[in-house]
Design goal:
Layout: E1 3-8, E2 14-18, E3 35-38, E4 43-46, E5 49-52
Length: 74
């Protein structure tokens, strides 16, 4: 099963969960099923070391990437 990042709309808890692609997980903190799947930053290994992306967000001129975008005020 793949690892996905989720945000709970009820209690604002962030969680990484192993779930099937169509499975709707419950929040491990409050039990709510109102979980939003988030876009995670990708990372990979290359022969000379590691390669990772700084952010999964689009460029600033494109606007926020989701309601929970890292560029929106907290």
């Amino acid at each position: 099963m793949p690892l996905f990042e989720f945000f709970c709309e009820e209690c604002s808890h962030h969680a990484e969960l192993l779930v099937g692609r169509t499975e709707k997980p419950a929040c491990p903190k409050c039990g709510s099923k109102k979980m939003d799947k988030l876009m995670s930053a990708a990372a990979g290994r290359v022969a000379s070391g590691s390669l990772s992306m700084a952010s999964s967000c689009p460029p600033p001129e494109a606007g926020p990437c989701s309601p929970h975008c890292c560029r929106l005020p907290q």
